[in-house]
Write a structure and sequence with these properties.
Elements (H helix, E strand, L loop, with lengths): L23 H21 L21 H27 L3 E5 L12 E2 L5 E4 L12 E4 L4 E8 L7 E7 L7 H5 L3 H4 L6 H5 L15 E2 L4 H4 L5 E2 L3 E4 L6 E2 L26 E2 L33 H7 L7 E8 L7 E8 L11 E7 L9 H26 L11 H8 L1
Parallel strand pairs: 7-11
Antiparallel strand pairs: 1-3, 1-14, 2-4, 4-5, 5-13, 6-12, 6-14, 8-13, 9-10, 9-13
Helix pairs in contact: 2-8
Length: 413
Amino acid sequence: MAIFNRRGATDAGPASKPGGPAGGAGAADNDTDSVIKEKKPFAQRKPANTAFKQQRLKAWQPILTPRSVLPTFFVLGLIFAPIGAVLYYFSSTVSELTIDYTECISLPLNEDQAIPSSKYSYQLHDISSSNFQQPRWTRTGENACQVFFWIPTDLDPPLFLYYKLTNYYQNHRRYVKSLDTQQLLGEVRTADDLQGGQCKPVGKDDATGKAIYPCGLIANSVFNDTFGDPILLTSSTSQNVTYAMSERGIVWPGEKDKYKRTTMDPSQLIPPPYWRGATGERYGKPSGEYFANGSNLFDPSQDEHFMVWMRTAGLPTFRKLYKRNDADVLRAGYYRLDITDNYPVTMFKGTKSIVISTVSWVGGRNPFLGIAYIVVAGLLILLGLVFTANHLVRPRRLGDMSLLSWNAEEGGR
């Protein structure tokens, strides 16, 4: 039958006979030549016959045996354990004071009250029941608050003042993308450019048609609470001494390169909606007319608080640096901190706090990394002991051919 004929075999039809109209043997030769010609380009793409291109390089193929694997568990555990202990120890040497002042603005006016224990956290050295005084707060104005706290021991520099927010999702995709880098670099960006870009819907003012500067959701929601310098009220040596802290040097190196003063006409710009009417010192006058001339024009390259805020946080609970002191010791005593409360957080069920902290060579007070190293070290040593006991009780001969899959199947039949 023709279905079993090999390729090139003579067919019974007239077209395959010698001398037939199909050309017979001559046609077969032509077909062979065309196949060879078609294959030549592909043959030229063959990799060179070298050890690298033909994957014949020498390689190390380790054989994992109990003698090599079990010591690895113990060695890694013995390495991780001291690393974790060192990290945990130096993290615990960091002194830190956290006070949640969210509810201070809702207190009765000029009524001094003790701060509930759930609203503050002391992680300071040499603190005891004998030298501890509960922090207090009082509302002194419509949006002004004073917080009083006790420092039981001297805190060496550098010292940092942070503000901390909770339940605030700066990592939302739309929020993170809502800025215009060209505008922040001082380039000309029209209202239509901003409204059609990432800044929408905070790119163009609907009432005036002007470009919002700086545009975007991040800039519109910038944190605008202000904190004064801590004032030492009482101590064993002096009274009413201000501990001066600087608002410079609070951004990461290179951050200032992202911001420049705008080259646009100030009359064509308008501040973000949440900036208008702000009473804070950092972002203009209550009338909101601080873009009327060049002297009052906002310059992002000179506002490090703005730069800190524009670097969005990856978690809903975060802290951002507000002030620092790199030279002076914070003496033990009773301090007062003046706060201007402008930033609402109750709308998203969040809280805001002040954090006063020192640092060590491993950074701030965060024991997680040290604990993680210690836990991993403990797991490695525990697994090493379990596997060692299993190997001693039920040893397995290396290279046991009976454990191969096909031998196991045959043995089970």
